[in-house]
Amino acid sequence: MYIGIDVGTSTVKAAAFDDTGRELAVEARPVALSLHGGHVEQDMEEVYTAVIGVLDALTSRLPGPVELAGLTGQGDGVWLVDKDGRPVRPAASWMDGRAHELLDQWLADGTFETVFRRTGSAMFPGCPGPLLAWLDRYEPASLDAAATALYCKDMVFRRLTGAPATTDVSDASMPFLDPRTRAYDNRVVELLGLTHRRGLLAPIGDPITTAEAREGLPSGTRLANGPYDLPSCALGAGVKAPGDGLLIVGTCLASLVATTDLDLKGEPAGLYISTDRPGHWLRAMPAMVGTAALDWVLSTTGVHHDEVDALLAETPPGANGVRVLPYFAPSGERAPFVEPRLRAELTGVSLESTKADLIRATCEGIGYAARHCLAAAGLTGTLAVCGGGTRSPAWMRLLADVLGRPLRVVEGEVGARGAVLAAAERYGVALDAAAWTEPTAVVEPDAARAAYYADAYDDHLARLAQARDRARA
To answer: SS3 of 432, please?
Structure first.
């Protein structure tokens, strides 16, 4: 029996698998986000309590012993803990926008581009560099009280095992890690004005750190810490060959393409995520908002999730002229470009527009954003797709049409599955990765609709360019 733990932004999950990769049971608990004035924070104790809760519920249902467990979770943000691993303040989420003025300054003075040229990381307000610099300027007492600036899964690992604070190369990739040496680039730390805070950066476990659990799981259970959710999903979806890609249709719309080519000369955008295999990276374009954009529209229009498929069938491609630029995050956009002040736009709406038009236009807009990210990431091979959005067959058909390519749909707890595969690799446990990552279905695009959307995508890019000009005005 194998357990994968996925500490997400809005939901904490734990899943159990047998040795063939069959998902046996899942437990989930919601966790809250606090949003106020561009600040987006989470209560670390609430998050950890949810982890313990799902593990207690899951392990009580299992018929046999736990062979090993893997841990993954949301990336970026700043999770400040003291020497005992306890929080010194609420966690600043990857969705946080408070540091946008610092990022504006770094965009203007060249710091942003210099960091990208050194690490392959295009910073955004919710990543550790800007957040730590903001805290150093406006809340230094929190940094003074902290022993380590961890990431979400690292905080959980520290508490579950009592092991010393550590992170892995995937979480460390943004923005301080040199992807060639797999160590922190002290020049980047200096450029961001954080040399005097260098000691807060967590030691890097390379390969990922392991320890035995002392709570939550049966005592002595072998646990591995990492990678974080994006590369973990890539493992769980079987994306390893250069050129193959993964689209995660979750709270964050993340596009990942496996590569052995480290190109730091292109337009600064996204990041290169280091993996457990030196010389292999994931070219990542994690857009800020995925299903969160659709959730906002559903909530605003009073539509339930189980109505989406029927409503998508009520209106034709193009949503009767309604268009949505789906950039709803309070911190703007981070991929495939960085635009901290960009906001969502709805156009073509009239008294004749229906809820179905708004919902289809939002799904189409998210599809166009995904196509933009995948093109920038260098997709040339197959494309897997996972995340909460896969529960809508109609949306998957729409996405295949907008992207103009087949989708290998991988359902279930893909991040937790990848966490188990990473743990098995670390512990030398032989699992059949091909069987564990077999797609649930393959969705083919409709040729006529794909041709329509190819033209509509060009229109999307034109409208986006105008919106970015307005955001910078």
So the answer is: coil
Asked if 69 and 213 count as a contact pair (C-beta separation under 8 A), the reply is yes
Q: How many other C-beta atoms can be found within 10 angstroms of the C-beta atom of residue 169?
A: 24
CA contacts within 13 A on the Cβ side of 287 = 32
Assess whether pLDDT exceeds 90 at residue 367.
yes
CA atoms of 412 and 148, how far apart (whole Å) = 33
CA distances 224 to 132, 168, 303, 407, Å, are: 27, 10, 40, 30
Other CB atoms within 10 Å distance of the CB of residue 441? 12
Cβ pair 54, 8 in contact under 8 A: no
In contact, 132 and 103? CB cutoff 8 Å: no
Please list the helix, strand and coil fractions of the chain in percent, rounded to the nearest 5, in that order: 40, 20, 40
Mean pLDDT of the chain: 96
Which tens digit of pLDDT belongs to each residue from 208-254?
999 999 999 999 999 999 899 999 999 999 999 999 999 999 888 99
Average pLDDT over residues 321-341: 90
Residue 187, classified by CB atoms within 10 Å of its CB into exposed (0-12), middle (13-18) or buried (19+), is middle
Q: Longest C-alpha distance within the chain, in Å?
A: 63
From residue 212, alpha-carbon distances to 5, 45, 55, 70, 163 in Å are 15, 21, 15, 11, 9
> 63: pLDDT confidence band, cut at 50, 70 and 90?
confident
Query: For 125, which DSSP code?
Result: T
CA 293 to chain centre: 15
Tokens for 325, please give them: 């630029």
Structural contact between residues 383 and 406, judged by C-beta atoms closer than 8 angstroms: yes
Element (H, E) at 233: helix 229-236
39 in helix, strand or coil? Answer: strand
* The token pair that represents 335 in the structure block: 């991929």
Cα dihedral value 371, 263, 97, 139, nearest 10: 160
Q: Could you tell me how many helices (H) and strands (E) the chain has, helices first?
A: 16, 24
Task: Work out the average pLDDT over 361-382.
Answer: 97
Burial of 176 (0-12, 13-18, 19+ CB in 10 A): buried
